[in-house]
Amino acid sequence: MTDLSEQTRFKILCAVDIIRMSKDTVVLTGAGISTHSGIPDFRSTEGGLWERYDPYEVASLASFRYHPEKFYQWIRPLAQGLDQVKPNAAHLGLARLENAGFIQTVITQNVDALHQRAGSKNVLEVHGTLETLTCVSCFQKVNTQNYIKPLLEEGTIPRCAVCGGILKPDVVLYGEELPVGIWLKALDACKQCDLMIVVGSSLEVLPVAGLPMRALERGAHLILINRMATYLDVRADLIFHEDVVEIIPEITKKVLGN
Ligand code: ZN
Fold first, then answer.
1. Please, what sign has the CA dihedral across residues 255, 242, 131, 83?
2. Structural domain count, the chain
3. Distance 164 CA to ligand 1 centre (A)
4. What is the pTM of this model?
5. What is the residue-level pLDDT of the chain in tens, covering all 258 positions?
6. Cys staple from 222: which of 80, 113, 190, 236, with CB 3.0 to 4.6 Å?
7. How many angstroms is it from 183 CA to the middle of ligand 1?
8. What is the CATH number of the domain that holds 94?
9. Residues 151 and 247 in one domain
10. CA of 167 relative to ligand 1 center, distance in Å
11. Residue 182, exposed/middle/buried by CB under 10 A (0-12, 13-18, 19+)?
12. Quick check: 175 and 115 in contact, CB under 8 A?
């Protein structure tokens, strides 16, 4: 890239050194990586899905139980986009680093499965996934793909073929616990890593925002790549307030030497 500043180029070289030296690297990703693939940021006030709806009203577990139709109306624009979105240069760069042994774990707040589609293998989806739905009555799990078309075209609420109950996307709603098995794995990964790289997360949503602290407590290095400042900027070894799609591919090329 020609438009990166001298200072940014220097920081990229430092990041490359830290990544090469590290034995166990955990990457934590948030909405800022997927907005470059056209996925709206759930929480962004500009054009975000929150703008027209009160999130606590539509996207809470309690209201889903009473008004699933409101939830599905709200999530329709996201479901619409999911068919067309593709992993971007940042997802692909992280997957290349993982496959070459430079990243051990990807923890993501995103529910779009773009890391897996890019080729990442050890992905912990702490906020769940839109890829599957679970029946709220009999807990039957199904693939979302089979229900997207009727939802988009007719606004049909997905229902369980076994018992007729409402199907809920396997994403974590307000008032809902994080998937405990995945959360414990994420905690363990953070406690044992020697490098944590935060990519496209402003670290505002608890409890995930606290994960880098677990890594820092054990003496891990911290690299932050996010447009906005975070509460951990003061603790980071390196900070990039640039677009992840500009920085990650450059770092990847230099770490891998091609
Ligand atoms: Zn059912």
1. negative
2. 2
3. 6
4. 0.91
5. 458 899 999 999 999 999 999 999 999 999 999 988 888 666 554 445 555 566 667 778 888 888 888 888 888 777 777 778 899 999 999 999 999 999 999 999 999 999 999 999 999 999 999 889 999 999 999 998 888 888 878 888 999 999 999 999 999 988 888 999 999 999 999 999 999 999 999 999 889 999 999 999 999 999 999 999 999 999 999 999 999 999 999 999 999 997
6. 236
7. 26
8. 3.40.50.1220
9. no
10. 8
11. middle
12. no
Looking at the fold, whether 136 and 25 belong to one and the same domain comes out as: no
Is residue 15 domain-shared with residue 3, that is, in the same domain? Answer: yes
Distance 158 CA to ligand 1 centre (A): 11
Q: Which residues belong to the active site?
A: 127
**Dist CA 135 CA 160 (whole Å):** 6
Distance 90 CA to ligand 1 centre (A): 38
Based on the domain organization, do 27 and 79 belong to the same domain? no
CA of 140 to the centre of ligand 1 (A): 5
User: Is the peptide bond between 207 and the residue preceding it cis, with omega within 30 degrees of 0?
Assistant: yes
> pLDDT per residue over 34-50, tens digit each?
988 888 666 554 445 55
The DSSP line for 94-134 is HHHHHHTTS--EEEES--S-HHHHHT--SEEETTEEEEEEE
φ/ψ region of 34 (left if φ > 0, alpha if ψ in -120 to 50, else beta) reads alpha
User: How far apart are alpha carbons 61 and 172 in whole angstroms?
Assistant: 9
Domain interval for residue 249: 1-39+87-127+178-258
Together in a domain, 66 and 140 = yes
Ligand 1 geometric centre to CA of 136 (Å) = 7
Closest to 115 (Cα-Cα) out of 133, 96, 134: 96
